[in-house]
Write a structure and sequence with these properties.
heterotrimer, A alpha/beta, B alpha/beta, C alpha/beta, A: alpha/beta, 5-stranded mixed β-sheet, globular, B: alpha/beta, Nucleotidyltransferase, domain 5, 2 domains
């Protein structure tokens, strides 16, 4: 079947088309046959639907050939998420096809494995998305078996220093369990904004000896390919939904909580 | 096509309301669903959804489904075919408001409309919200055709628009500060009347004396077709304050009536003056405030004196709704004005 | 940040104050305007906008809640939160992208959403003076 994947949580929208066979709760085959990257920053509303149209026509397919839509539901750009989710809900409603809600941070982490910037179990993969005001949406993942990833630090909204502290404690725990991390690899637009701060915090929280690496530009951001991959896995596990159940995952930090944390820091 | 007519699914989400409608040949409404007016006691599929204002993302798909369902019911009733339905397959074009309005609201309607257009392979037509309001009159009055002078008055807009053809119009004047509907709401608040202010003032003013208080009628420069209502809002406030400070009781009906008279004197005068100047023998009213009974009465009187025909929509078509958008889209389609899937939301879209 | 009290005699002085503020305000600033109906919040906004170089007509955003102006030296986002029911609604409107973005935000009735106004916002409380035209601006 043909799976359409949509990613609009970052500055650039991307879409992917995958051909996949799912049998007995397993992904038997999976191939990305089409991919379109957006080139205009934060122009999701204008470009998303044309991109979907393009990826289909480039493969001589029509929208009616799509059996499932996997969408990155967040966290990330508030407006971007809403455009992606609305578009998906409407397509799903009109076509009568199911949706899969893919967490953006997980898709970003998986990208490092797919692109082979991570090939071992010793890397703590940390996607971080800028949430403004010294906050990020972040998570920590470890490569598992066969291009899978496991969540080590719960994906969520964090103050930057809070997240580094989470890394420190995840690293300590892993070392205790005999599955040490020898480096942390960061990706996402959070790097663009908070890299300096991260380096400072690294020094001050006792992680001086650990390698902090930062993904290169070409593999740093969100992409629809891994959204498609995770979508296929979700479909195999029966974790799909109708258009009414597909909701944004803003990962919004409650205002009161945010102010408290800001005060505690200052 | 539905029963041989061009069928448009229209979507409107420019501000508070999430609305969808199915409209045939521009003027026949099969369904007109507005989120705040959905009877929540009428069960849909056993689930009563939460309908909240400006929760467009949550509302829109359900509102569209309702529009299809009710269109199907109406079709069944009219054709006598009991299981007649209306689905996306019957739709010939998708219409959507792309401005002006709140961008976060517009984008939900637009993203949804584009996806529907892609899914059913039909054209997408973007509509200007105010153009939609004007077109509400084509639905109400089947024989009405341009050219005419239009007055659009609502909470968010006060404009005099010269409409020369279905897709051709010129804004002759607008508000320089508050819209008329907004002035009503704010004065209603000052008078302790509650929300929404317009209908409440309209009602209570009937019991009051419109000459009790002299509020300044603001006409601006000579021959200007612009409006300014923030001054009269301040005037009412100052009057109420000074009366209360002097220990005198205020008469809410009198103040409401006097305020309304001052506002409507200006609106009626400018609109009629515009029609006469531009040689239009028809005046069309649109927008929420055009449901005001006193405004209709005064306009009717002035128009009768000059042999000008007056038109206004029924109350449901005065509020924000999608049927009016479907109508406007139909005439754009007929003129070959179709948009492509790169259509963007424009919060300050000019007419 | 200290507080200054400015006595305004009439609209001309509002204009002078507003234009000066508009000319010097930095992109990314939130200006919170607090004052009752009729104290001139929108009037002040018009002049701040003029100072920013906005050429479009500033009209009341009471109904649309947010109006965007892009003809000035940086974008101007004019809010009127009078009709906002609860804080969640502000989130749904994407207020974060505006308040912490690249433009200047002017928020009328900011006291209604106090907890969302950034710590480093410029707050102007407007009260009436003795005469009808007079105002007092308390600037923090």
């Amino acid at each position: 079947m043909y799976l359409l994947a949509i990613e609009t949580t970052g500055a650039f929208a991307s879409v992917a088309l995958a051909k996949t066979e799912i049998e007995n709760g397993e992904v038997k085959s999976f191939e990305i046959i089409g991919h379109i990257d957006g080139h205009d920053r934060f122009s999701h509303l204008q470009n998303l639907t044309p991109q979907i149209q393009q990826v289909l026509s480039e493969n001589a397919l029509s929208i009616g050939d799509v059996s499932m839509i996997a969408t990155s539901v967040g966290p990330g750009s508030f407006t971007g998420i809403r455009i992606g989710v609305s578009t998906t809900r409407a397509l799903s409603q009109a076509l009568g096809v199911p949706c899969a809600a893919v967490p953006s941070l997980e898709a970003m982490a998986l990208r490092q494995i797919v692109l082979r910037t991570v090939s071992d179990h010793g890397t703590l993969i940390c996607p971080i998305i800028d949430a403004r005001r010294n906050q990020i949406y972040g998570g920590g993942f470890r490569a598992g078996e066969e291009e899978r990833i496991e969540e080590t630090i719960k994906a969520g909204p964090y103050m930057v220093d809070e997240f580094i502290e989470k890394i420190r404690s995840a690293v300590a725990e892993a070392a205790d369990n005999g599955a040490a991390f020898d480096r942390a690899l960061f990706m996402g637009d959070g790097i663009d904004k908070y890299r300096e701060q991260i380096e400072e915090l690294k020094a001050s929280c006792g992680l001086e000896d650990m390698t902090f690496a930062y993904a290169e530009e070409e593999c740093r951001y969100q992409d629809a390919d891994t959204v498609a991959m995770i979508g296929a896995e979700l479909a195999a596990a029966g974790k799909v939904c109708g258009f009414e159940e597909l909701k944004p995952e803003y990962m919004r930090m409650a205002e009161a909580e945010r102010k408290l944390k800001e005060k505690q820091k200052g | 096509m539905i029963d041989g007519k061009f069928a448009i699914l229209a979507i409107e989400s420019s501000c508070d309301e999430t609305a969808a409608a199915v409209v045939l040949d521009g003027r026949q409404v099969l369904s007109n669903i507005i989120s705040s007016q959905i009877d929540i006691h009428k069960q849909y599929g056993g689930v009563v959804p939460e309908i909240a204002s400006r929760h467009h993302l949550d509302n829109i798909n359900h509102v569209v489904q309702r529009a299809f369902d009710e269109a199907g019911e109406k079709r069944a009733a009219e054709t006598g075919v009991p299981d007649a339905r209306v689905t996306m397959e019957d739709i010939d074009a998708i219409a959507v408001t792309y401005g002006p309005g709140l961008v976060g609201a517009l984008l939900i309607g637009l993203a949804t409309a584009k996806a529907y257009a892609l899914a059913c392979g039909k054209p997408l037509i973007g509509v200007h919200h105010i153009q939609g309001h004007i077109c509400a009159n084509f639905i109400e009055h089947k024989e009405l055709e341009p050219p005419f002078m239009a007055l659009v008055v609502s909470g968010g807009h006060t404009n005099i628009v010269e409409v020369t053809d279905y897709n051709e119009c010129h804004v002759l004047g607008g508000t320089r500060d508050d819209a008329a509907g907004e002035a009503y709401d704010k004065v209603a608040r000052v008078l302790g009347l509650g929300y929404p202010g317009g209908p409440l003032i309209d009602k209570i003013a009937r019991k009051g004396n419109p000459e009790a208080v002299e509020f300044k009628r603001v006409f601006l420069e000579k021959d200007s077709m612009d409006f300014s209502f923030s001054g009269i809002k301040t005037g009412v406030l100052n009057y109420v304050n000074s009366e209360q400070q002097a220990g005198r009781e205020i008469s809410v009906p009198d103040i409401a009536a006097s305020f309304q008279q001052a506002v409507l004197d200006v609106i009626v005068a400018k609109t009629v003056q515009a029609a006469v100047k531009m040689k239009k023998d028809k005046i069309v009213m649109a927008g929420g405030v055009s449901a005001n009974s006193k405004l209709r009465e005064m306009m009717a009187a002035e128009c009768a004196k000059r042999g000008i025909k007056l038109y206004h929509p029924s109350p449901i078509l005065c509020t924000d709704n999608a049927a009016m958008i479907g109508c406007a889209a139909y005439y754009k389609y007929k003129a070959g004005e179709v948009d492509d899937l790169t259509l963007d939301a424009i919060p300050s879209l000019p007419l | 940040m200290g507080t200054s009290i400015i006595k305004i005699k009439n609209e001309h002085e509002t204009e002078a104050f507003g234009r000066k503020l508009g000319a010097s305000v930095k992109a990314g600033t939130v200006i919170a305007l607090i004052g009752d109906l009729g104290t001139g919040k929108t009037t002040l906004t018009k002049y701040i906008a003029a100072g920013l170089g906005v050429t479009e007509q500033i009209t009341s955003p009471t109904f649309t809640i947010i109006k965007e102006y892009r003809t000035g030296r940086c974008p101007l986002f004019h809010f009127d939160v009078y009709r906002i029911g609860d804080i969640d609604e502000m989130y749904e409107l994407g207020y974060e992208e505006y308040f912490f973005g690249d433009g200047v935000c002017i928020v009328e009735w900011a006291d209604l959403i106090e907890e969302l106004i950034p710590e480093d916002a410029l707050t102007i409380r407007i009260t009436r003076g003795e005469g009808e035209e007079e105002r007092i601006y308390e600037v923090t």
